[in-house]
Amino acid sequence: MVLVILSLSLSVLPAVVLYQSVSEATTELHFTLRYFSLALSLGAGFLLYGLTLIFVVPAINFLLPFKVKPFRGIWFSLESIPWYYHNGLAYIVRYTFLEFITPSPLNILYFKMMGMKIGKGVVINTSHISDPCLITLEDHVTIGGSVTMFAHYGQKGYLIVSPVHIGKGTTIGLKASVMGGVRVGANQMISPHTALLPKTEIPDSKSA
Listing from the earlier edge strand, what are the strands of the sheet with 117-118? Predict the structure, then answer.
């Protein structure tokens, strides 16, 4: 919670400065112009908050003394702590601003800063991503709208954190689900609404 509060506070700081500056500059205006100016500053402040957040969260994630690694263990353990922190930070962006920049070069930049390995020409048209630091998307991968992608799963009372790898030129269709331990080869077409269960391995497609 301390890191959440710190992330939010640092990100909202430019918006507070903007609002305070507009408030002080409009004290002598007619109340209609003053209130409209303040409303504009709040709207602009939200955008400013979001753009700041997508840099603040990756910076804090980078500075954490522990990093997420693949493992199999109980849900509440010392080795699960980095996983909780990484996703806790990622969800701040996901649930407050990420939808507004999906898809765009900004969401690609954000995921790269969070540790996702992303090749050239990649499009990510979803914000439903967990464990970005354990996901690899090779060149020209397309992640369709509302795809759910995460590098973990629960099984028999254990938490398994396992990397996801999507090969070059592959398309993951609308609302598909890609779970931990999945490897998809190059030039594949995963149909919409498909569920790729843990440890699924799909070889390269012969047709490019």
Answer: 117-118, 135-137, 164-166, 183-184, 201-202
CATH 2.160.10.10 residue ranges of the chain are: 68-208
Q: Give, rounded to a whole angstrom, the gap between the first and last alpha carbons of the chain.
A: 47
pLDDT band for position 5 (cuts 50, 70, 90):
very high
Question: Residues 97, 50: contact at Cβ < 8 Å?
Answer: yes
List the strands of the sheet with 189-190, edge to edge: 123-124, 142-143, 171-172, 189-190
What's the token pair of residue 201?
């391995």
CATH superfamily of 68-208: Hexapeptide repeat proteins (2.160.10.10)
The string of pLDDT tens digits covering residues 151-204 is 999 998 999 999 999 999 999 999 999 999 999 999 999 999 999 999 999 999
